[in-house]
Amino acid sequence: MNPKMAKLRISLIxxxxxxxxxxxxxGRDADNGGxxxxxxxxxxxxxxxxxxxxxxxxxxxxxDPKLSSEYAVPIEIINEKLDIRRIxxxxxxxxxxxxxxxxxxxxxxxxxxxxxxxxxxxxxxxxHYGDAGYVASELSTILNIPFAxxxxxxxxxxxxxxxxxxxxxxxxEKKFKFKQRIAAEEKTLELSEFIVTSTEQEIETYxxxxxxxxxxxxxxxxxxxxxxFVPYYHIEQDSVKQMEEEQRKYWVTETISKFLINPHxxxxxxxxxxxxxxxxxxxxxxxxxxxxxxxxxxxxxxxxIRKDITQMPESEKDVLTDLLLLMDxxxxxxxxxxxxxxxxxNEVSLxxxxxxxxxxxxxxxxxxxxxxxxxxxxxxxxxxxVVTKNGGPxxxxxxxxxxxxxxxxxxxxxxKALRNILTNESQWKYYSNNGAINxxxxxxWLSHVNQYIDxxxxxxxxxxxxxxxxxxxxxxxxxxxxxxxxxxxxxxIDGTLIEPKLNNPGLKELKEYLINRTDKMAFALASGRNxxxxxxxxxxxxxPLPDFxxxxxxxxxxxxNGKDYILxxxxxxxxxxxxxxxxxxxxxxxxxxxxxxxxxxxxxxxISYYYDKEKYDHEQLIxxxxxxxxxxxxxxxxxEFLDFIPKxxxxxxxxxxxxxxxxxxxxxxxxxxxxxxxxxxxxxxIKGIIVxxxxxxxxxxxxxxxxxxxxxxxxxxxxxGLKHYKIIK
Length: 729
Fold this sequence. Notes:
This protein is of the alpha/beta class. The protein has an eight-stranded mixed beta sheet, sandwiched between helices. Strands 19-18-17-16-15-24-25-26 form an eight-stranded mixed beta sheet, sandwiched between helices. Strands 11-10-9-12-13-14 form a six-stranded parallel beta sheet, sandwiched between helices. Strand 13, helix 14 and strand 14 form a beta-alpha-beta unit. Helix 1 (about 35-45) crosses helix 17 and helix 8 (about 240-255) packs across helix 12.
């Protein structure tokens, strides 16, 4: 099917923050601001596009008693073409974004497993912020699906700003994980099909990155729901909706008026998170120092949602405390309102309209604003603006002619702009009318998603649906992994698949069977060998290429695509928990009857030795390992090799991990082996084959109905076992 004609299934990824269909908690904390709102509305409007089949919004599952139980629902249906899919990782509690980096590979795993289980393979992915960029890069590699990315903010600039403020690099790194974040942003520039920015100016912010030239950029202005953000003079035709609006407007009025002596006066409105960067204190300074401005208008600041300032995160607590102290310093009681909360979904548009009815003005003095969503929301409501000239607003104001640009640190310039709008009726009307008309033309979500879908379809049509960057990077053969597998044969190599001493009995017949197998049969190699040695035997013996390789005694998993071998990072992350390699290696120096194997036999999750069979003492090993011995798997094989690996690592656990990830029932697995390091594969509902030439470690192994002991050796024994299980007739 021509990709231009195909309806798109799009996966959006937004990991941190709080997303739900019944109302966003914008302003709750630093992770719940404009990005959350942007992503949710983008998902909504994409789902309404005629060329979109379905939108899946992937985020983190949170089951925290302090939060709504809605965040713990695995799949939330928003409409017939949109759902939120929540994937658990790093526990159940809500965590700030900086604490999520270490769990991203687990999140990738969870998404792959979910997509395969529910058969919702997308043909396009879009990530938001650096953490999701990392996840999309991994998914794109695993699933061979192209992706686009929106940065929202960049680690390079935040790090520089913090260093310039005098905080040590060590302290910054500990809290914000900039090394991981900037590396993820570099990788995203390299692998994404294109980067979406809000303005042309924003493209410049990517220039400090090494991979800037590898990125392709499309400036697409964010949109607003122009059916919600309507001019203040708009009259709702639906009588029920009109009554609901009147009720909400009454409560908005009450919320603001209770602070003010003269609530009938126009008001200067600011609405943002309590973030130092938003520069709200400068607005209070300007207002507090100017008695004339105080006589003309009230000041109304909505600074996020708060219950008890003392219980809030330090940065937000500091900002809010400063705002209240400034209110006190300039004695603005009765002239300044700073409400504790507002309903982001239902009340923000009414707040703008109420301010416009009062002939007020909206102010955004952020030190830098990537775009300025509040600027177009207020303008669409017919409310003139005084706004920072740094960033996106410098492109909005010339386009819409709806207010004045100012230096956010120049108090005199801000004061003049406010007075000009508040005291000049014709100027106020000019800005008000321009905003209401021009925002509808240039900044609607409809316009945004139309441009976006055009760019996506252009990319897919030029690349036969695979993305233009596909040819440069290794990808898994996803079609092999997408298929419904009825049986997975996992076989050890040395002594099982091949046995040169016996002239490899049955190898030719087994190879023929595997080469001619149908898509219903998957094939994997599981070996104590490292990847280099596994590749060597595949080439030497001309083995059919496996779907999976489990190597280095179950400590590494690779996928194959005919040319490249791609590491499963999710498995590596899973193994890292409670594994202290250096400590274990140091303790084992006390054992005289072991000798480290060559460097190529080692890896981050495997310490390999040769051992003296006559002197082997298992109890001595446990004693030397100390209290942490139970976190280590000790694997003896072929009377010669001794491996120490994480407790979680083994061929058997690797098989279970793969089966979960690719939705293959364990009862569909047939595992073949000959030595001690294969025992772990013969557990649970897996069907086992022990070949006739088994090593001494398996001589006394107690078999079950799920384990078949073959009479024949090596590959002949595997074929015998496959016939026993009626896989081969």
